[in-house]
Design goal:
31% of the residues lie in helices and 30% in strands. It is α+β, with helices and mostly antiparallel strands.
Length: 428
């Protein structure tokens, strides 16, 4: 049984060894994005593969965005000419339905205006990646999508990485050397590209990277330009906590090291759960803590007493809740956790600050440096004062805004941190 054939390159009279179990039409969309420096291609990762013997989850494959239609075929067809005729008839008889499937798919992507240009079509016969042992036929019709409206481009590039598309850099991840290697698979992030995508990249690479086929992206639309409250949270003496767990935790089924790793995995789950419960959607993990933010445009979400009463109030609520839940995880040990948090009001960027192919949203801006210095200054104060309870350091926030939310002022200190001088106000 041949595992892969391009039927367009085979004599019409040839019969396949095994009749395809299914026939599919795939309309694949090549949406080239140009940020002025590099060109990118959106990728989807539609399936994982599960080993039938071990049950382990294995790598799937990358494909371009696509709209799929399954043909209703009740007979076993093996002759190449009959397969080609089957598809010719289906395309002619279902032209309206096929175009309608385009509309629905682009509506799902948030794209309302676009131009579509046919790139190349071919018929693949191959063993199914998701169902090994089954051979299937795929009529693959590839299209360039250009002229996308501004809102559609923002929806596609997805500044907050909420929609799960990934973007392959056509100038870096794939290059001319890759595409001229005949019969070689191509990979992105260690996972194989689908055969139809590899085929197009190898034979139409220079069309893909031409300016004529690109949608030009405004780099300033890759992230939010925000003003608001930034806050960072860090567990005090996390290294000592890890050592204590490793030394004292006992299980018949796991080592102390494994139990410590599991504990810090649970800590990350606590962070995410508390963010979700409090409508925090801007955050990133940072070691044994996190950085998060509340932009001014979202302040209204926290005006009720249940939500926290104010943005400052919700930050207090979040940190207290995280402390409480982590201490609940530690209740069987001799450890009582405390934490330190820094709060700063200022301008920042949040989103794909590392470019279109960013793996996750993150922060940039001078405010992030100030926040980090504030956290370091607070750590120095805790060490000097031998303070054992959770506390906060704030910069650029009025004392009254803190005390009105139940904070107690502990100290004012001018901290020298990495050649920076900061006036910190310490609260409990």
């Amino acid at each position: 049984m041949s595992e892969y054939l391009l039927l367009d390159e085979i004599d019409n009279g040839m019969e396949l060894d095994v009749a395809p179990s299914e026939f599919w039409l795939l309309n694949c969309f090549f949406i080239v994005l140009d940020d002025g420096t590099n060109k990118y291609l959106p990728m989807t990762y539609p399936i994982y593969k599960i080993d039938k013997v071990t049950g382990e989850v294995e790598n799937g494959l990358w494909t371009p965005p696509y709209a799929a239609m399954k043909l209703d075929v009740r007979e076993r067809i093996r002759t190449v000419s009959r397969i080609k005729k089957l598809y010719e008839d289906f395309l002619r008889e279902n032209d309206d339905k096929i175009r309608e499937s385009f509309y629905y798919y682009f509506y799902y992507l948030g794209i309302h205006e676009y131009d579509i240009t046919h790139l190349r079509s071919f018929i693949e016969y191959k063993e199914s990646y998701s169902e090994p042992g089954k051979c299937k036929c795929y009529y693959i019709c590839n299209h360039f999508i250009k002229g996308i409206d501004t809102v559609g481009l923002v929806n596609l590039i997805d500044p907050e990485c909420l929609r799960n598309l990934q973007f392959i850099n056509l100038n870096f991840n794939i290059n001319e050397k890759d595409v001229i290697q005949a019969n070689e698979s191509l990979y992105f992030k260690g996972k194989v590209l689908a055969t139809n995508l590899t085929n197009i990249l190898k034979q139409n690479y220079f069309e893909l990277i031409s300016d004529e086929n690109a949608n030009h992206v405004d780099p300033t639309k890759l992230f939010h330009h925000e003003k608001g409250l930034l806050f960072s949270y860090d567990i005090n003496s996390s290294g000592l906590i890890r050592n204590e767990i490793e030394d004292t935790a006992y299980s018949l089924h796991a080592s102390g090291d494994d139990i410590a790793k599991e504990f810090f995995d649970l800590v990350c789950q606590v962070f995410v759960q508390v963010f979700q419960e409090n409508n925090i959607n801007q955050f990133r993990m940072d070691g044994d803590g996190f950085i998060a933010s509340i932009p001014e445009r979202n302040y209204h979400l926290y005006s009720t007493a249940v939500a926290g009463g104010s943005p400052i109030g919700v930050i207090k609520k979040i940190c207290a809740e995280v402390d409480s839940r982590i201490n609940e995880l530690l209740k069987a040990s001799r450890i009582m956790l405390s934490s330190k948090a820094a709060i700063y009001y200022g301008d920042y960027h949040y989103g794909k600050v590392a470019g279109i192919s960013s793996l996750y949203p993150t922060y940039s801006g001078k405010s992030l440096f100030t926040l980090a210095r504030t956290q370091e200054g607070l750590a120095g104060w805790i060490k000097e004062k031998k303070h054992r309870n959770s506390c906060f350091a704030v910069v650029n926030i009025c004392d009254a805004d803190m005390t009105n939310e139940g904070f107690t002022k502990l100290d004012m200190v001018s901290a020298e941190v990495k050649e920076s001088s900061l006036d910190l106000v310490i609260f409990s």
